Amino acid sequence: MTKFINFICNEQQFALTIDSVEKILLYKKPALIPDTSAYINGFLSYNDIPLLLIDMKMRLFNEKLTPNEQTKIIVANWKNKKIGLIVEQITQVKEYPITDVEQSESSNSTVRTGYLIGTFQENDAITLHIDVDKLFSSEGEQEIEELIEK
Predict the structure, then answer these.
(1) What is the DSSP letter of 111?
(2) Distances (CA, A) of 4 to 7, 23, 29, 111
């Protein structure tokens, strides 16, 4: 059994392995960054360094997230760096047997949905398991790395 943090984005359940998550923060308005991809929300001070925030609703569904009291920031490990994933709501920490993961047919990260590792099904609900390291295109990765290093 592996532990996952489940969250909601656009009424869909997603799961991240708990190993890829450092901390969960309450949402705070970030310092905005002009001329960046629409899913890059800005910077937030975290442990005395700027944490780049990603609007997961914009990244996954091309719709802007409207923050409310349930909005959270998942501090995630991404390519040996830290990024903040803004999600609508954290629903639970849950264990799934690894045998329940339906491996995706393609591990090619150039595929638009290469970040989807598999699915977990309980009753009629399907939770999508995502890999933070494969969340962005190569251009998106380059943009994020340049912003983190500034």
Answers:
(1) S
(2) 10, 13, 26, 24
Amino acid identity, residue 20? S
What is the C-alpha to C-alpha distance for residues 145 and 142, in angstroms, rounded to an integer?
5
Banded pLDDT at 103 (limits 50, 70, 90): very low
In this prediction the pTM is 0.89
Q: What is the DSSP string of 44-80?
A: EEETTEEEEEEEHHHHHHS------TT-EEEEEEETT
Report the side by side order of strands in the sheet with 81-87. Answer: 21-26, 72-78, 81-87, 49-55, 40-46
Distance CA 69, CA 34 (A): 26
d(CA 144, CA 72): 20
20 close to 100: Cβ distance less than 8 angstroms:
no
**Torsion angles phi and psi, residue 93, rounded to 5:** -105, 125
Instruction: Report which residue type is found at 1.
Output: M
Question: Average pLDDT for residues 126-149, to the nearest whole number?
Answer: 94
| For residue 31, pLDDT beyond 60 | yes
